[in-house]
Specification:
Elements lengths: L1 E4 L10 H11 L3 E4 L7 H10 L3 E6 L2 H6 L1 H11 L3 E4 L11 H20 L3 E5 L14 H8 L4 E5 H6 L4 H8 L3 E6 L1 E2 L11 E2 L8 H11 L4 E4 L7 H15 L2
Parallel strand pairs: 1-10, 2-3, 3-4, 4-5, 5-6, 6-7, 7-10
Antiparallel strand pairs: 8-9
Helix pairs in contact: 1-10, 2-4, 5-6, 8-9
């Protein structure tokens, strides 16, 4: 298992040179990019190299992928990204019915063809809203997977749970599509309000030992990416999570 760190988790703890140095000291070898680090890819790649870090995966918005995909490819190539994941669709742009989600999946499928033709992997990164049933009972995440058949899935397990779904069931049914995993944890009810109810990995309510077993049994994923959407201390989150995961997967 290759552990990585989603840099979005440290967006509030600048500057980036200090963040990358902290992650390297903590023991990370990989990080995952997001839009906030793509302004000067060559300069950021230099920082990665200086700290012995690689960026095998990165998030790129649907707007970037549809609007300037050549720039996405250039950025990804400079940073060493091998897998591109589309991470989100804004609430005001989300489809309201099955036909709308099918149309969005077709857009992702078209993007995926271009991304794969350029030599990168391509997938969707979920949040919680994809698991909330539509009026007709259909589930957006199911529609995405059934419509964009060649698209990978970067499974954010904690968001699956927050969406009211059974993560073990989704892994069992669709594990072959999962090529990367976001590893995050949910605090007990009423705790960590200042951190939006998230917890350091292994210190919350998510059954990560069981999930690791299921993920290794049912998916080809080797990249496991630590994430906390709003940590009060990025260094604490990074170190406690990595230490726990290493112990849990030995």
């Amino acid at each position: 298992m290759n552990f990585s760190f989603q840099l979005y988790s440290a967006r509030n703890f600048q500057p980036w040179p200090d963040v990358l140095a902290m992650l390297a000291r903590t023991g990370y070898k990989n990080v995952e990019g997001f839009g906030g680090v793509y302004e000067d890819p060559s300069a950021f790649r230099k920082l990665l190299d200086q700290n012995g870090l690689a960026m095998p995966s990165g998030h790129f918005s649907i707007d970037a992928l549809e609007g300037d995909i050549d720039d996405v490819f250039k950025t990804a190539s400079i940073l060493g990204i091998e897998r591109i994941y589309c991470p989100h669709i804004a609430a005001d742009q989300r489809p309201a019915d099955k036909a709308g989600w099918q149309a969005f999946a077709a857009r992702l499928g078209a993007v995926g063809e271009k991304v794969r033709a350029a030599g990168f992997g391509f997938g969707w990164h979920n949040h919680d809203f994809e698991f909330v049933p539509l009026a007709d009972g259909s589930v957006p995440m199911q529609i995405l997977l059934e419509t964009a058949l060649d698209m990978d899935w970067e499974a954010d397990i904690a968001w699956v749970i927050r969406g009211g779904a059974d993560a073990m069931d989704w892994i069992a049914r669709h594990g072959i599509r999962i090529t990367a995993v976001h590893v995050k944890d949910i605090a007990a009810a009423g705790e960590a309000a200042d951190e939006d109810g998230w917890a350091d990995v292994g210190h919350g309510t998510v059954d990560w030992p069981g999930l690791f077993r299921e993920l290794k049994a049912h998916t080809p994923a080797t990249l496991y990416i630590m994430e906390h959407d709003n940590p009060s201390d990025a260094s604490r989150f990074a170190s406690r999570s990595l230490d726990w995961c290493r112990g849990a997967t030995e």
